[in-house]
Amino acid sequence: EEGQSGAAATAFGKAIEQNASVAEALVNLAGLRAEARDLEGAVAKLAEARRVEPRLREAWLPAFGYLESLGRIEESIALRSEYLAWNPKEIGHRVALARSVLALQFNTVDDELLLRTFAELEALGAAERDDVRLLRATHAMHRGEHEPAREILRRVIESATSSPTQREEATRLLEKLRP
Q: How far is CA 56 from CA 87, 92, 138, in A?
């Protein structure tokens, strides 16, 4: 507690020296809380920072992961949706949102909503298209639709826009489908 207080004072001091806003200082405190494995405290400080300065990206982005680490997936989804409402061009976050939704869908399946989400994501940009294909393949695998999953995974592997990581993931999933 004492060490954390000293670190917090140092963080505030640095924020003041750098002419940082109150919200930025709160983000720094959230980082210290997370380092001390106090994710609840980190989430609270980030929420406070968003109330002070709603457009500060740094007050949003770490909160998604902290909430998911705490098992609060639905809150992470809601927060990410709120973030995307004012920053709709963040395609990577749309893909991450779909991943979180997919994790929940395995328990409460609403296929129509999920497939609409995939279609929206694919329409946003080529850079994330292969991520969305991987999500589609995972969904198909979960439903036992192995042949469509294989076809999707082959497209990812053969795609000129796939990253090495995406190809590795597609190959790993394809291996799971081998008889």
A: 11, 17, 34
Hey, what amino acid is at 95? V
Rounded CA separation 47/59 (Å): 7
Tens of pLDDT along 26-55?
Answer: 999 999 999 999 999 999 999 999 999 998
Residue 47: CB atoms within 10 Å? 16
Q: Which amino acid is at 117?
A: T
Measured between alpha carbons, how far is residue 45 from residues 56, 58, 81, 86, 122 in Å? 13, 12, 20, 21, 34
**Tens digits of residue pLDDT in 75-102:** 887 888 788 777 777 766 666 666 666 6
How many residues appear in the chain? 179
Helices 111-124 & 126-142, crossing angle to 10 degrees?
160
Backbone angles phi, psi at 111, to 5 degrees: -60, -40
C-alpha pair distances (Å), 136 with each of 116, 139, 157, 161, 170 = 11, 5, 14, 17, 11
Cα–Cα distance measured from residue 103 to residue 98, given in angstroms and rounded to the nearest whole number: 9
Q: CA neighbours within 13 Å on the CB side: how many for 39?
A: 11
Note if the pTM is more than 0.70: no
> Tokens 């940082």, residue?
20
CA end-to-end distance (rounded Å), the chain: 55
